[in-house]
Amino acid sequence: MSTAGAAAPLLCVKGVTLQYKTREHLVTATYRVSFDVHPGDRFVLLGPSGCGKSTLLKAVGGYLNPVEGEIVLKGKAISKPGPDRVMVFQEFDQLLPWKTVKQNVVFALEASGRLRGKEAEDRAMAYIEKVNLTRFAESFPHTLSGGMKQRVAIARGMAMEPDILLMDEPFAALDALTRRKMQDELLQLWEDTRFTVLFVTHSIPEAVRIGNRILLLSPHPGQVKAELNSDGDDSVDPALGSTLSERIHKMLFSDAVEAEEVHPDA
Amino acid sequence: MPDQPVARAEYVREQVKEQNFGVVRKPLTVGERIWGQSAVRKAVILIVLAGLWQAYATYLNNTLLVPTFLSTVQSFIGHTLTGELPGKAWVSIKVLLQGYAIGLALALAIAVLAVTSQIGNDLLEALTAMFNPLPAIALLPIALIWFGLGNPSLVFVLVHAVLWPVALNTHSGFLAVSNTMRMVGRNYGLTGVGYVCRILVPAAFPSIVTGLKIGWAFAWRTLIAAELVFGTSSGSGGLGWFIYENKNTLDIPSVFAGLFSVIIIGLLVESLIFRVLEERTIRKWGMHLQ
C-alpha cells in the first residue's frame, strides 16, 4: 500500500512512556512507544491485555499526559481532550440517554462549536443515513440494540469529521455475528469517506481485517514488537509460507513461551 | 453401551409465513388494561382505606376522638366552599415554594462545588454530617430571634430542611455518572458550567429527582410543624394554624379536614408534578432502572 508516500505523517507518537497510579502501585503502561499514522490509515494497535494499548489511545485522546516523549497531531503537541480527535468507546453508555439518536449527533456538533441549528441537523442526518439508522433518528438509545448503539457512536464520531477517529475496542461487547457485520460496515464507510482511524483491539482476526497497518505491542509494559502491513484478506504470503495472522500469532505466542521458561528461575 | 452417539439424519424445515400464524400479539382485555393502570390500583387502595375509616368511626361513635370519613369530607367541602381552606393552603404553599426554591438553588451550588473540587467535597461532607441530623424545627426559636416573627423565619427553617437532603442526593448522583459519559463530554470540548449543565445534571437526574421528592416532603412536614408551634407568628396563618385553631375550639372534623388537605396536596404534587416530571425525563430516557 503506497498511500501517503513521503508526505508528512498526521499523528506522531514519539518515545511515549505512560504511567498511571493505582491505590498501591505506580504502573508503567507503555515504555518508549513510537509510531506514525499517515492520513487515510486504518492503524491498528494490537496486543494482549496489559500491553497498554487502551492507555495509549487515551493518551492520544488527551485524557492522560505522557511522562516521557510526546504525541504530535498535525505539528501540535496534544495536551488535553478536544474535538479534533473523537473517541468511540467500547461501552454502550457513551450515548447520552436523555437525547435521541439525532440529538446525540447534533449535541456533539453543537457542544464543540462546529455547527449550529439547521446545518448541524443536516450533517447529523447525513451521517446517520451512512450508518443506516435514518428510521431510528428519533429513538432514544435505550430502545436500540448494542450494534445499533455502536453505529450511532460511530456516526457521531464521523459527523465531527475529526482529524483522526480513535476507536477503543468498539465491537468487543457485541456478539460474533453483529461484530463481523460491523467490521464490514466500517470498511465500507472507510471506502466512502477515507477517514483516518486509530483502532485498538486484542483480536488478531479483527486487526487483520480492519487494519492496513498493524502495530504489535508486547505486554508489561507495552513496547513496540513489530509494525506490519495487512491487505485485509489474510492469504498465504508466498515468500514466508504463512498467513499474516499466523505470523502475528507466532510473535505473540513466543512471548508466552519465554515467560514460562523464565519464570521458574526467577 | 454404544461408544458412538446414535446417527441421526440432518433436516431442513420450511418456515411458516407470518401471516399464517393465528395470533402473534394478543391485545389485553379491557379489565386487564384498567387494572394495569397504577392510578386505578392506588384509587382502589384509597377507597378501601376510606371505607375502613368510615366503618371504624361509625362503630366507635365518638366525634371528639375519630370523626367519620363522611363528616370529615363534609367539613372539608364546607371550608373549601367558604374559601377558608384554599386561602390557608395558599398561604402555606407560598411560603413553602420560597423556601424550596432557595433550598434547591443552594443545594445545586454546593453539589457542583463538591464535584469540582476536593475542598468542596470535604465541605459538603462535613456540613451534611453536622446539619442533616438536626431537625429543622429545632432551629425555629433561633430563627425567630434572628429574623423576627414572620415569613423570613419560616423560609429560613424550610431552606435548612430542603438543602441537606437535596445536596446529598445530587452529589451522590454526580459521583455515580459513568466515566465514559464524562469522557464523552470532555471529548466534545465541554468544560465548567457547560459540562455540569449538559452532562452531569442530566446524567444524575434519577438521583436529583429522588432528592427533589425527599426535599419536598421534608419542607412540607417542617412547614406544618412550624405553623402548629408558632402559627400566629406567620401573619394570616396557613394550614398548620387552621388545624391548631380548630383543635382549640374542639371542632375535630375540621382538624381532620385540615390534615386531609395536607394529604391531598401531597398526593396531587406527587401524582401531577413529580410523576409527570419522571415520565417526561428519566422514564422516557430509560434511566429509571438504575
In short:
The complex is a heterodimer of chains A (266) and B (290). Chain A is α/β, with parallel strands linked by helices and 266 residues long.
CATH topology of the domain at 83-283 in chain B: MetI-like fold
Major sheet description of chain B: none
Mean pLDDT of chain A: 83
Report the strand count of chain A. Answer: 10
Question: Average pLDDT across residues of chain B?
Answer: 85
Shape of chain B: flat
Which term fits the overall shape of chain A? globular
Strand order of the largest sheet of chain A: 6-7-8-3-9-10
Radius of gyration of chain A: 19 Å
Would you mind describing this structure in some detail?
The complex is a heterodimer of chains A (266) and B (290). By secondary structure, chain A is α/β, with parallel strands linked by helices. Chain A has helices at residues 53-61, 101-111, 117-130, 146-159, 176-193, 204-210, 244-265, and strands at 11-21, 26-37, 42-46, 68-73, 76-77, 85-88, 164-168, 197-201, 213-218, 223-229. Chain A has a six-stranded mixed sheet, sandwiched between helices. In chain A, strands 2-1-4-5 form a four-stranded antiparallel sheet, with helices on one face. In chain A, helix 2 (101-111) runs parallel beside helix 4 and helix 3 packs across helix 4. Chain A starts with 10 loop residues before the first strand and ends with a helix. Chain B has a domain at 83-283: MetI-like fold (Orthogonal Bundle), CATH 1.10.3720.10. Chain B has helices at 30-35, 38-60, 69-81, 84-116, 118-131, 140-147, 151-175, 179-187, 192-203, 205-230, 239-248, 252-283. In chain B, helix 7 runs antiparallel to helix 10 (205-230), helix 8 (179-187) runs antiparallel to helix 9 (192-203) and helix 11 (239-248) packs antiparallel against helix 12. Chain B is mainly alpha-helical and 290 residues long. Chain B contains twelve helices and no strands. Chain B is 73% helix and 0% strand.
